[in-house]
Write a sequence for this structure.
């Protein structure tokens, strides 16, 4: 799994909006959509249900992935901090 896709997934899951996630991450909305689609292909399941009014909600698979994405990204961030403090 790609860390950029996981970060994008986490932001969409937090915002429940591709548009707000794109804005927060300074990405275009098509880039966010492409990253989520790529992650869905990797995990073999839809992660979000798209609603008609641009709202999204997590699928069961998306809800299952959320805590793992948080843990993975928190560990990566902690490693960066730890390694940066050793310079």
């Amino acid at each position: 799994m790609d860390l950029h896709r996981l970060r994008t997934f986490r932001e969409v899951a937090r915002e429940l909006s591709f548009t707000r996630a794109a804005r927060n991450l300074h990405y275009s909305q098509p880039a966010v959509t492409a990253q989520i689609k790529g992650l869905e292909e990797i995990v073999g399941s839809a992660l979000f249900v798209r609603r008609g009014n641009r709202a999204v909600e997590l699928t069961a698979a998306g809800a299952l992935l959320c805590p793992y994405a948080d843990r993975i990204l928190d560990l990566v961030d902690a490693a960066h901090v730890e390694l940066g403090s050793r310079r």
